[in-house]
Amino acid sequence: MAVASQTHKPVTANMVSNEWIEKQMFVWFLLCDNKAQPQQRNKSKGKTSEQRVQQQSQAGVKAKHTCGQCGKAFSFKSALTRHQRIHSGEKLFICVECGKAFSQKVNLKRHQLFHNGEKPHTCDECGKTFIRAKHTCDQCGKDFSKKSNLTVHQRIHSGEKLFICDECGKAFAQKQHLKTHQLVHSGEKPHMCDECGKTFSQSGHLREHLLIHRGIKPFSCDQCGKAYAQKSTLTIHQRIHSGEKLFICDECGKAFAQKVNLKTHQLVHSGEKPHTCDECGKSFSRSGTLSLHLLIHRGIKPHRCEQCGKTFTQRSDLTSHMKTHSRTELYHCDHCGKIYKQKHNLIHHLRSHTGHEVCPCDQCDKVFTTYKDLKSHQTSHSSERPHKCDTCGKSYKWKSNLNHHQRVHEKNVF
Questions:
Q1: Which domain holds residue 119?
Q2: Where is the C2H2-type domain (predicted)?
Q3: Separation between Cα atoms, residue 189 and residue 341, nearest integer Å
């Protein structure tokens, strides 16, 4: 059997060299690709989470993980999990030294530096070491552990207010202050007192309120020694001593020490009576007046006269009644000379002469038919002397006294 002879192509030097070159090029390509990948990974590590999300969004990659509480989106589930601890208040990382808990591991590590005494941040100028890197405000010298806190603080000096309320246009330097303000519009009061159930829009107001239940009154008046749980209440009280009345009615010019008293007073001009009795339908401008009125329906008369045993629903009625026993205080009508035992009866009587509401002085028992006369009279209660002589500098409460005094200088001229 004849064996077919196989013909082999001769192997040339060119063929060997070409195969070797192709293999070398393939190896070189793999090496280059492996070097490029770690560089790319290192670059991505240097970027913040926000930059990575932005880069992915530009590349068409959407953030898949969304917070169900606030709608914020994250590209990684781990970032979402960390974020959700803000809403839940969960703090998984606990310091073994003191038991303080943190929501993030990095915050625990920073805290532990206090216990081990490690101070990794060194000043290049003097060599002094610190637990945290300091960020100092160049305006006032105040130090901050975080640069973001310094940035927020510097808005106080610049007056910059980036966060604007959509409802009323009021602007704030910090986002948190805007959020707190927006509770005014929504009416939301998420902070509740466990003692009495009263609710507050701010946690700070709740903390102040709790002092009342605990009987703690750290703010004392230096004039009379009266103590208060809240500094704002002390400030209002101190106006009694100073006589300061900052809140003035646009309608009649009457001044008040407290804003709430001005608002209540303004209901007199508007005629608004928002508080209605469910029993008889009678309406009142003040809630306190309604509360007193309800005692009539319930037959409650807690105020008793010690001299005759007569009882009254309101303390003011008892006070008026007590004057009938002493008969030392009488009210005279300047128009007809009629005498009354009680002031409110004189006020009611004066309407028959004037045909309109009268103006009683809140500092004494006098009653006036016009507001102008009342204002002139109230000068007698104050130490103010607004009418000053240009010649000698002497001052008077009333202009008529000044005019009389100036005649002395006129006589000297002639």
A1: 76-160
A2: 65-92, 93-120, 135-162, 163-190, 191-218, 219-246, 247-274, 275-302, 303-330, 331-358, 359-386, 387-409
A3: 49
